[in-house]
Request: fold
Amino acid sequence: MIKLLLAGVPRTGLLMLAILLALFVALPFFVSDYLVTVLFLILYFAFVGQAWNIMMGFAGQLSLGHALYVGLGAYAAAALYVHFGISPWIGLWASMGISAVAGAIIGFLAFRFGVGGVYFAILTIAFAEFARIGFDHFTWVDGSSGFFLPVANYTENDLWNLRGSTRMFYYLMLGMTVAALLACHALLRSRAGYYWLAIRESPEAAQALGINIFKYKMYAVVLSAAMTSLAGVIFAFFYNNLFPEQIFHISRSIELILAPIIGGVGTLAGPLVGAFLLTALAEGLREVMLQLGVDVPGVKQVFYGICLLLVVMFLPDGVWPPLSKLLGLDRKTPDREG
Reply:
């Protein structure tokens, strides 16, 4: 099974992956809780970026409302836990199911009626806004006043109920990110992966070859939605509070997709590289400004905008493709897997 998942990866790449994984496993033992939180955020954005990459990078369907699936996953698992005492490990199945249905509805409306390109992106934004307004008035989860999860303590780890320390969440997120990377590598080498790439490059040519583009676009949307909802579950139990205005807002969606765009859309390593660059540099900038006693509202958003502008101007394919060439890892499998 492992050989199948790692098929086509150069030896140098495997060695670097092993070193990087060992580094991520060991780091929490040597750094502060604050830095563990930063590492957690890097992995969180890498995971969500990988999920979005399935829809956009592999199948070529631009979603700008991906916060919808984070929010649905977060609220579903949190509500089941708070109201019925259901473990998030059971609740996550409801989260994935609800998000998959939402993705299927969006995909059906778009693909059945020929809504594509920028109009598909607008449709995803619209559904995220519908959810934001709806949850603002959904009293079962306390609407706009916020939905709060009970926290007994942060020291004793209760993995079954996802109650515990930052380090517990960090290792959980690390496992999810590694699993997502391996799964996406396997997907790209599968029949569905080749079909997605064909659809991304030329839907007309793919249809002429007999590929059912409606079905495989739907696969991409549903899988991406369900996978994204898992990040929502972790988000809810890590932060212990949910506000519709925050979790469904379009700015959250943009924040989620920046990592793969900066790192390289359609590449496997791109979301991780982009998440590391954006999160580490943004947190570093925040610390520098705190040390200088400077408080500039919105500085992180300005920083993200500058990074995006620089990448678009000088690295239109993202940071990872030229970096992989520099490291000798640019051997292609079915696509720019890297």
